[in-house]
Amino acid sequence: MSRVVLKLGGSVVTEKDEPETVDTEALERVATAIGEWYTDERAAGTDLLVVHGGGSFGHHHAAAHGVSRETGSTDTQAVRDIHGAMQDLNEAVVGALADADVPAVPVHPFSAGYRTPEGLLFYPAEPTASMLSEGFVPVLHGDVVAHAGEGATILSGDELVVELAEGLGATRVGLCSTVPGVLDDADEVISEIVDYEDVADYLGESESTDVTGGMAAKVRALLGLRAAASVFGPDDVGPFLRGEEPGTVIRGE
Ligand code: IP8
């Protein structure tokens, strides 16, 4: 059995600097690539879980309300605004995948996950596992989560990828980003990362409103996975799903 976890970066599927705007063309392109693989090329027994980021939906509202992964809020309007925007984006992603004949179903992490007072995430894998065994493609998203003692904090899609890739025994993990991989200081794609220290100097912070830390945080989190993870651009979704290793491959211990 093979289990693929694919994250669609928020900046891939939204116009990152235009509040609450889907990049319809880019979303359709990646959904079509996923649909073609899912219906025509996927080996029997291979299942797929999709996670998407916040882009101009979640990050915009999180910044407006001053909520981040570390700084929580007990303001229920903030929670509703951030979560509501993410639900809207999720509906657009699920809709595009359904149009491409992928049996996509929406999953809203705020209803299931929580953080301990230390900020550790708990997210039960079982509901998602049952969806996968019934042949659904669960589509989760970055969200807000209840955080003991803090109200609610931001849950990034990357944290969900790491948590569920481990919890569900993913065999392959892919992160579709706006760039073709992790770039060095000459803007060349680094083909493989095995140690964060080797690339720490190249990884700046994201320039748009992104409360969860950009590429540096992604690489650090992916190095903690058992499965190899690939970071690639939107044109490489198809090749990744077909088993190639486009962009940057991140292999932890
Ligand atoms: O874009 C963040 O998810 P990410 C989600 O994967 C929100 O970091 C609500 C800002």
UniProtKB/TrEMBL annotation:
Coiled coil: none
SUPFAM superfamilies: Carbamate kinase-like (SSF53633)
Purpose of the protein: Catalyzes the phosphorylation of isopentenyl phosphate (IP) to isopentenyl diphosphate (IPP). Functions in an alternate mevalonate (MVA) pathway leading to IPP, a key precursor for the biosynthesis of isoprenoid compounds such as archaeal membrane lipids.
Native species: Halospeciosus flavus
Residues the record lists as binding ATP: K7, L8, G9, G10, S11, G55, G214, K218
Self-association and partners: Homodimer.
Phylogenetic lineage: Archaea, Methanobacteriati, Methanobacteriota, Stenosarchaea group, Halobacteria
Family as reported in the entry's similarity comment: Belongs to the isopentenyl phosphate kinase family.
Keywords, comma-separated and alphabetical: ATP-binding, Isoprene biosynthesis, Kinase, Nucleotide-binding, Transferase
Protein name from the UniProt record: Isopentenyl phosphate kinase
Span of domain Aspartate/glutamate/uridylate kinase: 3-223
InterPro entries: AceGlu_kinase-like_sf (IPR036393), Asp/Glu/Uridylate_kinase (IPR001048), Fosfomycin_R_FomA-type (IPR024192)
GO molecular function, one term: isopentenyl phosphate kinase activity
